[in-house]
Amino acid sequence: MILDGQDSHAIERAALALRAGELVAFPTETVYGLGADAASDEATRGIFRAKGRPSDHPLIVHLPDRLRQAESLSRFAQPLPPFARALADAFWPGPLTLIATRQPGVGAAAAGGQDTIGLRCPDHPVAQALLHACARHGVPGLAGPSANRFGRVSPTTAAHVAGEFGDDLLIVDGGPCTVGIESTIVDCSRGAPVLLRPGVITRAQIERVAGERLRSQAELAQPDPRASGTLESHYAPTAKVRLMDGRMLQSALDVLGAQAAHIAVWSRTPLKSRSQRLILRRMPDDAAEAARQLFALLRQFDDEGAKLIWIETPPETAEWEGVRDRLMRAAA
Ligand code: TXA
Ligand code: MG
Hints:
The protein is of the alpha/beta class. It is built from 10 helices and 14 strands. It has helices at 8-19, 41-51, 67-76, 82-91, 125-136, 158-165, 203-210, 246-256, 287-303, 321-331, and strands at residues 2-4, 24-26, 33-37, 60-62, 96-101, 116-120, 142-143, 170-173, 184-187, 194-197, 240-244, 263-267, 279-282, 308-312. The strands form 2 sheets. A 10-stranded mixed beta sheet has the order 1-8-2-3-7-4-6-5-9-10, sandwiched between helices. α1 packs across α5. It is globular, with a radius of gyration of 20 Å. The two termini are 34 Å apart. The mean pLDDT is 94. The structure holds threonylcarbamoyladenylate and magnesium ion (MG). Residues 28, 30-31, 33, 57-60, 95, 97, 99, 111, 114, 116-118, 120, 122, 144-146, 182-183, 185, 196, 225-230 line the site of threonylcarbamoyladenylate (TXA).
């Protein structure tokens, strides 16, 4: 059932359902999340069941902003190191997840049993209205992975979520997500920042604010982080995705000529085809706009019956790292 996120009664209803241990999908600026009371291991286990996600893959805990934030943060995590505090101050609310040392005895299910926990304060008015309503009812944070089944494309509208989980799930509608790809994840639990997942906040922005160089996973010996967003094959639509440069795309279309069918193409380079049955879409030149469109477009190509999705390889620049990462995993 889809609830209107602008309606305060709907927010209250969703918060009460969460307090009762139910699952509720909610909008964020990045993608929709599948939420449960993060302080309740019982409620949180429902997420793993619904998603078909292995229970040792940790979830992100979403926190309210402003006054409530410090209270919720200290419930789940030990005090952040100064560089992590600086990142939270600069980018929260926003599309940044920090991995911190977990407060023992809380959020074990959300953390997938690890002694660290992922935390994020989303920049979406409906998410914040829900998180504040939850806090008033004694729910300090919402464990929430992307609201899709394991390994599939993240949802960026309420309708996508309903398509994944059906009509029984309570879904708070906050409109289409404006960022469109998942948050940047920085592990802050190992003495220096480590980038676990690129997003729209770039490496350079993180290093400037943290006052520290981002270390590679290999540089800081670590236990297995079990980040499903970092599995090689992920974010996959049903159709087969391939990345090619503009010239290769054009020659492939020339070879197929009028026969090209069940193929969807997303490219910045203008392309020509003699086929009437080709699905041809223009990739924006702006990385942020491309991120916003990406997941909805992959779903749309599936719906339009594409068997193959050919995408022009994005530029090798910093702004495109998040989109490049998702496309490489979709193609893996
Ligand atoms: O933008 C986002 O981050 C969205 C919205 C809903 O907030 N959430 C999201 O959640 O993408 P999910 O579960 O699909 O991806 C969370 C990622 C996973 O790759 C998970 O393994 C990693 O965060 N993660 C969470 N806690 C972790 C921890 N303690 N250590 C290492 N990785 C962690
Ligand atoms: Mg996900």
